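$ ./design --mode recover --in tokens.txt
reading tokens...
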């Protein structure tokens, strides 16, 4: 509808970012610690393993 009323691509993209950025931030804040914990639980059963830290999960999501 906004395109029909003369909005350009920047205004439409800005509106989408303004609406979805907080939701994506909340989803990341909830899911990243859970993913880290699940990875630690899964890898805890192996005899030899390397400490992952947080970077692999960040790179997978970013």
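writing sequence...
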């Amino acid at each position: 509808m906004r395109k029909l009323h003369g909005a350009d691509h920047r205004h439409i993209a800005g509106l989408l970012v303004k609406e979805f950025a907080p939701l994506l931030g909340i989803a990341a804040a909830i899911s990243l610690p859970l993913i880290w914990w699940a990875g630690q639980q899964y890898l805890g059963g192996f005899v030899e393993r390397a400490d992952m830290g947080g970077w692999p999960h960040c790179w997978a999501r970013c």
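exit 0
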